[in-house]
């Protein structure tokens, strides 16, 4: 492999990196004579990839561009047994059909980031399908319960006398055996995966293989700016979100995570990144300008430059200039519509907490009432707080920042 310059090495080993174990060995292998076999596993527990997954995939793509090979492990076995993310309770087990359906979606999405020509995707069932009870017992013999209780999540639950399923103890073993099965050189994961990645390293050594390098990346916070991005938490930006949805979610990010998103999801120079971080902290630039730039970059990447320019212009028109959106879906009001009464030719009486739910502008009456209390509901640009109002047909109702409908008579 060609010798790498200092700038490339810095981008690979420092930008968007939490820890490399051991880093000296990684650098030695990186400049060795043969391509490295890079491993990253995904449990197809839910059907969509989000920007949290992209952090690791970007790092893999950088190494692919240097000539290294990626092996994506589709966890069709581990997805069915336990909780890989270190959450404090067990995850619902999935059946084989659910796993297969989700995995097919994942496979399509992987290649929007990584290079398909330098990627080999494999399913765990290729090796675990041949396992016997004797194979499982042999695998468990390499580690002790005491070792596994050092994993932070297990330790906390044990100390709090909360249950730990035996199947959960199998999860790190199976993930570790994946490294043995493909003879991985480097395994990638979030910082919450460190224990499991180290199990793989140790298991390879016990099996007589050269132990893999462990490469961890920071956890990307979700749109709430606090918890890790995840579909179950509803704070995610999916890579297949529609352009307007993706841009809108970026615009809702708290100011304190903008620089981190730029660091982990874009290639802007480090100097420019530091300028953004300083400007946000010092409030010398309105953070909304950085959010617009970030949203434009992400929409352009996952959709097109035309989509990016279009959604940015629409955002500026609607949210900064307070004009109405160009394309607003119609919601037809009839006598059967929940929350509509006294319908005549030109208007009707609206019970807004019910009507907002019926029109898809709120998930529940409770949410609708909160929007009204927060003055987040507008009818043709005028804020309303009353729950019962007379509404003319043809008006545009807005709830929250990004939800609009035009009320038309059925």
CATH class of the largest domain: Alpha Beta
Q: What's the average pLDDT?
A: 87
Rough shape? globular
Helix content: 40-55%
Poorly predicted tracts of residues: 82-90
How many DSSP helices? 17
Distance between the termini: 68 Å
- Within the largest sheet, what's the order of strands? 1-6-5-2-3-4
Q: What fraction strand?
A: 15-25%
User: What count of domains describes the coordinates?
Assistant: 3
Question: Can you characterise this structure?
Answer:
The chain is α/β, with parallel strands linked by helices and 410 residues long. It has 3 domains: 6-220, Rossmann fold (3-Layer(aba) Sandwich); 243-320, no CATH class; 330-409, Roll (Structural Genomics Hypothetical 15.5 Kd Protein In mrcA-pckA Intergenic Region, Chain A). Helices cover 43% and strands 15% of the residues. It has 17 helices and 14 strands. The strands form 3 sheets. Strands 1-6-5-2-3-4 form a 6-stranded mixed β-sheet, with helices on both faces. It has a 5-stranded mixed β-sheet with strand order 7-14-13-10-11. Strand 10 (377-379) and strand 11 form a beta hairpin. The protein is globular. It starts with 5 loop residues before the first helix and ends with a strand. Mean pLDDT is 87; it is low at 82-90.
Topology:
Elements (H helix, E strand, L loop, with lengths): L5 H8 L5 E3 L1 H8 L6 E6 L8 H14 L4 E6 L21 H15 L8 E5 L1 H4 L4 H8 L4 H4 L3 H8 L6 H17 L3 E5 L3 H13 L6 E5 L25 H9 L6 H8 L4 H13 L4 H16 L2 H16 L9 E4 L6 E2 L5 E5 H7 L6 H9 L3 E3 L2 E2 L4 E5 L3 E4 L3 E7 L1
Parallel strand pairs: 2-3, 2-5, 3-4, 5-6, 7-14
Antiparallel strand pairs: 1-6, 8-9, 9-12, 10-11, 10-13, 13-14
Helix pairs in contact: 9-10, 11-14, 11-15, 12-13, 12-14, 14-15, 16-17
